[in-house]
Design brief:
Blueprint (H helix, E strand, L loop, with lengths): L1 E9 L5 E10 L3 E6 L6 H9 L6 E6 L9 H6 E4 L10 H8 L8 H10 L13 H14 L4 E5 L7 H11 L8 E5 L12 E6 L2 E7 H7 E6 L10 E5 L2 E7 L10 H10 L1 H4 L7
Parallel strand pairs: 3-7, 3-8, 5-6, 6-7
Antiparallel strand pairs: 1-2, 1-4, 8-9, 10-12, 11-12
Helix pairs in contact: 4-5
Length: 279
């Protein structure tokens, strides 16, 4: 559904942000896009949406070239940006104006999500808190039923209960012909939500793997004594001992710790990436 080949991109008169990047993303999955600050995550998402264009290489999204921005493409792709800027109108008015751009918009789903987020559709967008605005925009994004739904830092501005609501909502919305990409620095917010991990660093995709493959090849443990772990790849200390990432030599079942895995990949690339046949 999304095919990127040998993409290179740089903003005018600046250092290259993405270089010779290739990636294929398939429908029916929720992808988590992770990377350090300045790695180019937003730039990659904006390329997919057709807001900025490759210097070298090509992008194809649901059979179309994003830079052409055809009506059929724009109806099928929705980007929820990190910062939301809402007009001084009621939610009901905002909905009336903007839902027309998305032929598959599901009004019942939108109202259901507003109820889940405990927000009244009669509220004025200029009068609610930033967190509430963010939840309205999340509800709208989901209700578009866009084939490509991209969320850039969706949990920024949400308190802990709202993040729990977000995870609950996202867990049940994916359709078989839909692709969802969530980019975030708040890695723990993606635990138990995504089924594929993309890690972007050094101007390219370092890792593109399913959660099942990661937990098949690696084991995540908490131990009091490091002697119990043979040659761990990565270790973090804490009040309750140590959390470690190690090769899953005994075929153990463990739960993926997204933040721990992300830190491990960035810190120990030469040890961990070869496990997944990456150079």
């Amino acid at each position: 559904m999304i095919r990127i080949q040998n993409l290179t991109f740089a903003y005018q008169n600046r250092e290259t942000v993405l270089e010779n990047l290739s990636l294929e993303i398939k429908p029916g999955h929720i992808y988590g896009l992770l990377g350090p600050n300045g790695a180019g995550k937003s730039s990659l998402l904006y390329q997919i949406c057709g807001l900025i264009f490759p210097k070298i290489g090509s992008i194809e999204v649901i059979g179309e070239i994003p830079s052409k921005r055809t009506p059929s493409f724009l109806q099928s792709v929705y980007l929820l940006p990190e910062e939301v800027d809402t007009p001084n109108i009621s939610i009901k008015s905002y909905l009336k104006i903007n839902k027309l751009f998305y032929p598959s918009f599901d009004l019942d789903l939108f109202n259901q999500l507003l109820a889940e987020f405990e927000i009244s559709e009669t509220a004025n967008l200029s009068e609610v808190s930033y967190g509430q605005k963010k939840k309205v925009m999340i509800a709208f994004a989901i209700a578009t039923q866009a084939k490509i739904l991209i969320m850039d830092e969706p949990t920024n501005g949400l308190d802990i209960p709202s993040k729990r609501q977000f995870r609950k909502v996202m867990a049940g919305i994916l359709q078989d012909d839909q692709t969802i990409i969530i980019s975030t620095h708040q890695v723990r917010d993606l635990d138990q939500l995504i089924d594929y991990v993309l890690i972007l660093d050094d101007k390219k995709i370092l890792l593109h793997e399913s959660i099942d493959t990661i937990t098949e090849k690696l084991v995540f443990k908490q131990v009091m004594n490091l002697d119990l772990i043979s040659k761990p790849f990565y270790v973090e200390g804490g009040l309750k001992g140590y959390v470690v990432v190690a090769a899953n030599e005994e075929q153990e079942h463990s739960k993926l710790d997204m933040e721990l895995f992300f830190n491990a990949v960035l810190s120990e690339k030469n040890q961990i990436l070869p496990i997944f046949n990456h150079q």
